[in-house]
């Protein structure tokens, strides 16, 4: 089994990283992590080629991500909430999943399916988890996640760092249990 993690935080020792460390300690099997802030991935240009042709014609690191998605059984999107949404680089990567939607919508192909997904979010206390979570779930669905998608969240990192947020850590444990089943 392989879990593919999308890390949407630029802070390698930040709140999202703390919850991801806890998740990785519990997840069984192989783990691969994509740190979107370091990735050289361009946004979708809506050229619509993928309505007719397989894959995406933009040749960048996203091509490796498509291959990693295909190999994975479980998917985990982890990110801080930024202005009530997911951070830009994660949304840039997400935009390149449009070819998955087009494969289904215009060519009748089911390219990714049968995976499990989960979401980890951190937020500094001003909120906005709903929209961020909604976008993360859309990402996961495009990558083939089916069924329920649990959320583990540290909601007030301005007052309580995620590493010390007992409730959030318990949610991460539950999420890992779900993904391991
Ligand atoms: C550009 C930016 C925008 C943010 N917007 C929000 C927000 O809308 N709601 C919120 O609760 N926290 C917001 N925050 C706070 C972060 O979500 C919070 O500090 C988070 O724990 C950071 O996680 P990290 O250490 O993994 O990067 C924002 C932080 C930044 C840098």
What's this model, at a glance?
Helices cover 38% and strands 17% of the residues. With 181 residues, the protein is α/β, with parallel strands linked by helices.
Write the layout of secondary structure elements.
Blueprint: E1 2-7, H1 15-26, E2 30-35, H2 62-71, E3 74-80, H3 88-95, H4 98-107, E4 116-122, H5 129-142, E5 151-154, H6 166-180
Parallel strand pairs: 1-2, 1-3, 3-4, 4-5
Helix pairs in contact: 1-6
The protein binds flavin mononucleotide.
Structure description:
With 181 residues, this protein is α/β, with parallel strands linked by helices. It has a single domain, classed as Flavodoxin domain (Rossmann fold, 3-Layer(aba) Sandwich). It is built from six helices and five strands; from the N terminus they run E-H-E-H-E-H-H-E-H-E-H. It has helices at residues 15-26, 62-71, 88-95, 98-107, 129-142, 166-180; strands at 2-7, 30-35, 74-80, 116-122, 151-154. Helix 1 (15-26) links the parallel strand 1 (2-7) and strand 2. The radius of gyration is 16 Å and the shape is globular. The termini are close together. The mean pLDDT is 97. The structure holds flavin mononucleotide. Flavin mononucleotide is lined by residues 9, 11, 14-17, 80-84, 122-128, 157.
């Amino acid at each position: 089994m392989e879990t593919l993690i999308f890390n949407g935080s630029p802070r390698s020792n930040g709140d999202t990283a703390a919850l991801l460390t806890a998740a990785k300690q519990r997840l069984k099997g192989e783990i691969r992590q994509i740190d979107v802030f370091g990735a050289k991935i361009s946004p979708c240009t809506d050229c619509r080629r993928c309505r007719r042709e397989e894959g995406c014609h933009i040749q960048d690191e996203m091509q490796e991500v498509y291959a990693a998605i295909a190999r994975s059984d479980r998917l985990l999107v982890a990110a801080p909430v930024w202005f009530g949404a997911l951070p830009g680089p994660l949304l840039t990567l997400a935009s390149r999943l449009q070819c998955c939607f087009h494969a289904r919508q215009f060519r009748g192909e089911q390219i990714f399916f049968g995976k499990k997904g989960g979401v980890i979010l951190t937020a500094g206390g001003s909120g906005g988890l709903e929209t961020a979570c909604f976008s993360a779930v859309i990402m996961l669905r495009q990558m083939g996640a089916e069924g329920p998608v649990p959320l583990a969240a540290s909601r007030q990192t301005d007052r309580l760092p995620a590493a010390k947020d007992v409730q959030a850590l318990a949610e991460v444990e539950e999420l890992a249990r779900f993904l391991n089943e």
